[in-house]
Design goal:
236 residues; 7 helices; Rossmann fold
């Protein structure tokens, strides 16, 4: 049974999914962290790789960029392929002075101006948050391993290039750690499907502190800590 965007049988997709935005990052996860990884779908260049991590079946599949793209893949994975948990492993821009480039952020909630927070219940803004068990598992693992992680809200924007810079200081005052483009969409899809989700992010640049941004190559390769934290969340 294929969907319009995933061309494989339900058994080809594991119940646990690692979901970076970048297809190259999904392939890198499969080649460097999975055992026996095989390509099970490659529609529109979005590869889905299924193998095992420490003996546990896992699929790595990219989401593309933004809430609309991620929502397509997450919905099909949850509703058509029986996926139980998806962990977004991506990047964010730092907002808070508490975080620095290369730090890891675990998104305990996702603020957003996207319609994804209100479309199901007009007049009500949904609180978009991850699975508690996944959140706890990721944080416990990171702390027990001596990894430094930041836990707090992020802001999911529909725009990479935006003139609405006036909202960023207000988000900072509310404790928002970073800005990215997918977490709120993932959390909304999980709520609709009655499944679980988490976003673990590497800070790739900072909006205020002037520290050096990660290059495109670094964004693809320097995510080992976030990846291991995300894997722990999936396995919790």
């Amino acid at each position: 049974m294929a969907t319009p965007h995933i061309a494989c049988e339900p058994g080809d997709i594991a119940s646990l999914v690692l979901m970076p935005g970048d297809p190259k990052r999904a392939e890198r996860i499969a080649r460097t962290r999975m055992d026996g990884a095989r390509l099970v779908s490659d529609v529109r260049g979005i590869g889905a790789w299924t193998g095992t991590i420490d003996g546990i079946p896992v699929t790595a599949m990219a989401s593309g960029m933004g809430v609309p793209s991620l929502s397509i893949y997450a919905t099909e994975l949850y509703e058509q392929y029986g996926v139980d948990r998806i962990c977004r492993v991506g990047t964010c821009g730092g907002i808070s002075p508490k975080v620095a480039v290369r730090d890891v952020v675990v998104a305990s909630s996702a603020h957003t101006s996207s319609k994804v927070s209100t479309i199901d219940l007009p007049g009500v803004t949904l609180s978009l948050a991850p699975s508690f068990d996944m959140l706890r598992g990721a944080v416990d693992h990171a702390r027990s391993s001596g990894r430094s992680v930041h836990i707090g809200p992020v802001f999911t924007s529909d725009f990479f290039y935006s003139t609405r810079t006036d909202i960023i200081p207000a988000l900072d005052k509310l404790g928002t750690l970073g800005v990215e483009m997918e977490a709120a969409g993932l959390y909304a899809c999980a709520l609709r499907a009655g499944r679980e989700a988490l976003a673990v992010l590497t800070v790739s640049d900072h909006l205020f502190d002037g520290s050096g941004d990660l290059t495109a190559d670094e964004r693809e390769t320097l995510f080992a800590e976030a990846l291991e934290t995300g894997i722990a969340g999936l396995r919790a």
